[in-house]
Amino acid sequence: MKVIGWIGLGNMGMPMCKNLIKAGYPAVVNDTSREKVQEALALGAQWAESPKEAAQKADYIFTMLPNGKILLDVVSGENGIAQGMNNHKVLIDMSTVSAADSALVSELIEKTGGRFLRCPVTGSTGPAAKGMLGLLISGDKELMKEAEPMLDKLGRNKYWIGEKEEARVMKIALNTIVGNTAQLLAEAVSLGEKAGIPVETCMEVLAGSAIGNLIVQSKVELINSGKYDPAFSVKMMLKDFDLALDTAKQYQASLPVTAVVRQFYEEMEAVGRGGEDYAVLVERLEQNVGIKRS
């Protein structure tokens, strides 16, 4: 069985890597410290001292990193992935990064003779743990088919978007809907609460209605409880909204709603709540209109 390398074992990367290990794939892992990868090591993964070493020991190298700058550093650094690549190896990046940064990574990997698949994901920590993420894929379609047995352990739905950076743009577009949905929920819930409807009733109706998609359903418990433990944080949503607005400039697109809602996330970051779930926009609006939960 092919050996996988996994670099970036945070809230998303860890459960994804664990799913591949549990499926029987030998794994070599790397992160900023050995302590961060203990769960994977306990399942039998090997520790690599650097991204280079992970690439040297693996056939398929997966990355799940916070942003494009870190991805570029991990790929191009002195002990980076590119130093361990050859024409028998594949890099599969599952991070949410800009099309421009992804294109730079593609150039770096191409120079090594290696192959590169872009595969950003949809879904948060729950679907990641269950192997039920959505996978947005661009690059060589035959390479996607080659990697499919591994990708099947990570996601339920796979979409081939195109041959270059199309998957990056599609992921960013999806995230604008996710982030803007929190503001729509805030407006709907606060309106109901002002009219005397309990928040639990508001959320039951919204989640069970025609607009009750997976995003809405996944936030019922958080909004009902008013405790916004993060599945996806305000800070991460701000990063994705900035990516979206930068991408809109690149392609001369207009995102007026996203531009406004970004300011609400900026407010929450400014008052020290950037680590909370992005659905905290509901509480922001409740407070602004004078709603005090008992």
UniProtKB/TrEMBL annotation:
<dbReference type="Pfam" id="PF03446">
    <property type="entry name" value="NAD_binding_2"/>
</dbReference>
<dbReference type="InterPro" id="IPR015815">
    <property type="entry name" value="HIBADH-related"/>
</dbReference>
<feature type="domain" description="3-hydroxyisobutyrate dehydrogenase-like NAD-binding">
    <location>
        <begin position="167"/>
        <end position="283"/>
    </location>
</feature>
<feature type="domain" description="6-phosphogluconate dehydrogenase NADP-binding">
    <location>
        <begin position="4"/>
        <end position="162"/>
    </location>
</feature>
<dbReference type="InterPro" id="IPR006115">
    <property type="entry name" value="6PGDH_NADP-bd"/>
</dbReference>
<dbReference type="InterPro" id="IPR029154">
    <property type="entry name" value="HIBADH-like_NADP-bd"/>
</dbReference>
<keyword id="KW-0520">NAD</keyword>
<protein>
    <submittedName>
        <fullName>NAD(P)-dependent oxidoreductase</fullName>
    </submittedName>
</protein>
<dbReference type="InterPro" id="IPR008927">
    <property type="entry name" value="6-PGluconate_DH-like_C_sf"/>
</dbReference>
<dbReference type="Pfam" id="PF14833">
    <property type="entry name" value="NAD_binding_11"/>
</dbReference>
<dbReference type="InterPro" id="IPR051265">
    <property type="entry name" value="HIBADH-related_NP60_sf"/>
</dbReference>
<comment type="similarity">
    <text>Belongs to the HIBADH-related family.</text>
</comment>
<keyword id="KW-0560">Oxidoreductase</keyword>
<dbReference type="InterPro" id="IPR036291">
    <property type="entry name" value="NAD(P)-bd_dom_sf"/>
</dbReference>
<dbReference type="InterPro" id="IPR013328">
    <property type="entry name" value="6PGD_dom2"/>
</dbReference>
